Amino acid sequence: MTWRLSADDLPDLARGATLLGTGGGGDPYIGRRLVERVLGDGSIEILDPDEIADDLFVIPTAQMGAPTVMVEKIPAGYEATAALRILEEHLGRTAEATMPIECGGINSMIPLVVAAETGLPVVDADGMGRAFPKLSMETFAVYGVHGSPLALAGENGEKVVIDTGTDDRRMESLARAITIRLGGVGHIAEYAMTGADVRRTAIPRTLSMALSLGRAIREAREANRSPYEAIEQTLSTTLYRYMRRLFAGKVVDVERRTSEGFAKGVAKIAASDGSGSTLELRFQNENLVALRDGECVAIVPDLICVLEDESAEPITTEGLRYGQRVQVIGISTPDMMRTPEALAAFGPAAFGLSEPFRPVEERAGVTRQDVVDAGLEA
What we know:
The protein starts with a strand and ends in a 5-residue tail after the last helix. The protein has 13 helices and 19 strands. It has two domains: 3-204, CV3147-like fold, CATH 3.40.1610.10; 230-373, Beta Barrel (CV3147-like). An eight-stranded antiparallel β-sheet has the order 16-15-14-13-12-19-17-18. The chain has a four-stranded antiparallel β-sheet with strand order 4-9-7-8, sandwiched between helices. Strands 1-2-5 form a three-stranded mixed β-sheet. The chain has helices spanning 10-20, 28-39, 67-72, 79-91, 110-118, 139-142, 168-181, 195-201, 206-222, 227-235, 340-346, 360-363, 368-373, and strands at residues 3-6, 43-47, 57-58, 61-65, 122-123, 125-126, 150-153, 159-162, 185-189, 193-194, 203-204, 243-259, 262-271, 278-284, 286-292, 295-299, 303-308, 314-315, 325-331. Helix 1 packs antiparallel against helix 2 (28-39), helix 2 runs parallel beside helix 5 (110-118) and helix 9 packs antiparallel against helix 10 (227-235). By secondary structure, it is an alpha+beta fold. Helices cover 31% and strands 26% of the residues. The longest helix is centred in the middle third of the chain and has 17 residues, at 206-222.
């Protein structure tokens, strides 16, 4: 169902989108403030993907770069709309809607900034169902929509169009190199498509799911209920279906570096139960793999999310600090993100990980039939 989003929804949306961003996707506070500045007392039309016309022309918009840089290099605010206009001019066609390319504290918000500035509606879907570090890691690309031509805008008026045909990896490489030269952050418009393409290639209703998740966490805290149970219950009726608590403890070490346009590193968490157990998280913008005492308990593309222990407030990879008390949860991805084609694009091997993909619910000792019996199968 089509609905309208107001400024009152933004704190919950940012919280839920940061959770789905699995450590990446940008800082939620910055993202929310960018939208608030433009939106004021207005509202944004959010389109249900099942209700849009087949020929609706959609241009997704986003910010790209290392999250560590984004915290220090706050956008002016107009860059994503500039990228949209550059791509419209190049294609000779005007966008009728925009859409996120991924979930995250900033990248669920950038299309909302564009919508508030232009009056365009936003399609309730995205191309990752979480956040990934590379532009080529999209369900759009997996199922036949290519990102090129891509338009990129910088904060000082820089304008770039990259056209690599069907080679999305080459498009990512060139856009990344330019973004690095712009100081580590750029804004983009890419993966132009029709409404029919959206329904075929996108993860549906991730904006509304992020809003529901953020609201469920807040309302559970206000009612002195477990926010973790609220997350699990909210997910159980979605394409994500299954949540697993992986670890609880204290962050005892974070090694993080900005390299090749990404925030890469490792975080270590010591168990809070006195068992001496440890969890190691490896990340590239987003959390990629969780190893408990050396054993893999969750791996990309399933979501690995770090939450503040008591409040369940999501923590991004650039926000991880020594001494934080946290819980780590794993969330199953939609089935369309687990096909052989999808895993080739953004499964473990795409990140150089030797561990094969096994669903988080199976690693947790739960069979597919257990999931069906529990009523979590869609």
